[in-house]
Amino acid sequence: MPSAPVDPVGQPAPADPHNGFDRYFKITQRGSSVAREIRGGFATFFAMAYIIVLNPIILGSAKDMYGHHLNSGQLVTATVVTAAFTTLLMGVFGNVPIALAAGLGVNTVVALQLAPRMSWPDAMGMVVLAGLVVMLLVATGLRERVMNAVPGGLRKGIAIGIGLFIMLIGLVDSGFVSRIPDVAQTTVPLQLGATGHLDGWPVLIFALGAMLTLVLLVRKVPGAILISIVAMTVLAIVINLVAKVPSWGLTVPKWPGNPVSSPDFGLIGHISLFGGFHKVGILTGILFVFTVLLSSFFDAMGTVLGVGDKAGLTDEKGRIPGINKILFIDGMGVAAGGVSSSSAGTCFVESTAGVGEGARTGLASIVTGALFAVSLFLTPLATMVPSQAATPALVAVGFMILAGSIKDIDWSDWSISIPAFLAMVIMPFTYSITNGIGIGFITFTVLRLALGRGKEVPVPMYVVSAVFLFYYLMPAFGLA
User: What are phi and psi of 102, to 5 degrees?
Assistant: First the structure.
């Protein structure tokens, strides 16, 4: 008799659906439970709650061509509304443990490339257009064909790259690793801590949180990641109260004087779909939309593949059933981010924190989305968890993704292992999922052609490789 399914922390899952709710979300079928989904939803929220603070800083610090800034309070509301709406959609209709919010990288493109050349409504209109194109690509089946054309070994390389990338995000956001300033005149880009040494209470919180998370995972304690986040947050609050720590980064771990805030919906709906083309011209406008589209398209693709692989949602061919719904909702996230003026929404790689807690279904996303909705009125509480308490989850999950995928790559076939290797290392080294996928695709296509195995390369891989090549060569032609 086969044994019952076992979750990541060693607890047996029930064998048969209990009711219609269980059946709809496939909780039991996927070897999960309501408790695990709730834990996973909380873990994902805490791991990505920083976006509530960070996105308004990135967008609010930039000016459009008229010198206008976006209001910080309105940006907080727009960011939270978009995250709540799109994550709830993903939970109810996509039924996967993937949360969405304003995409880092895309918001920088909007703030530094689009806005200075046009008005804010014009820039956000271009984001909406990119989202509409993404949805059109999904509706025509082109986006799914691209994903299905990716060879299994390269898929695993992308998943591992995601794992290494989120681990580096955790190390950098916690302050455990930092960028060496250019004034240091060294070719070494990163260092330990802020000065080459580990010092300060925030880094200690991260180090203790990382050790606690790993110890709990090794001992197969249910709720390991969430327990660590809560415990380190409490400890950080106590330390900050006693030691008066000068800097925690974006989020200071202290009880807010007024935990309730009033949302300001002033930015939502302030867009001009085609105004940007009048400012910069048709060709430049198309290239701007293309830049947003490319980043959103492939960042989400990598995240969906990585999270789906880690959550065990893929079939024997490495494909995720019902992928079109997931990708369409992601396209809606891009457009919704433009409509709300919070920049393009996209699938968040921090969703792996919830998967690490055992989340396997959309119920976890519903929990995460509901927490975002609540934070609309309780933003001071939502941003009370310091990054040093949440980022240990990213380090632990990064390892789990690598451990679960690296053995499935055929390292003896260099035409697949080299592209997989490049994809997995380019992502963290360039801080971009899109770059890792692009270099991996181009290398795979070139190597197979060099071996006279061009017929083994699916047509979508040729097309996408050519698109990436054009994207990378745009500066050389004066188009960037």
Answer: -60, 125
Q: What pairs with residue 347 in β-bridges?
A: 100
Q: Residue 119 has which token pair?
A: 């008005």
- 165 in a structural domain: yes
Burial category of 423 from C-beta neighbours within 10 Å (exposed 0-12, middle 13-18, buried 19 and up): buried
pTM (predicted TM-score): 0.76
Q: Which domain range does residue 472 map to?
A: 30-477
Number of domains the chain contains: 1
Structure tokens at 87: 């994550």
* Interatomic CA distance for residues 408 and 425, integer angstroms: 17
Question: What pLDDT digit, counting tens, does each position of 90-99 carry?
Answer: 999 999 999 9
**261 DSSP assignment:** -
- Tell me which of 19 and 79 has the higher pLDDT: 79
How far is 436 from 463, CA to CA, in rounded Å?
Answer: 17
pLDDT in tens, 330-361: 999 999 999 999 999 999 988 988 998 999 99
pLDDT of residue 2: 43
The SS3 assignment for 178 reads strand
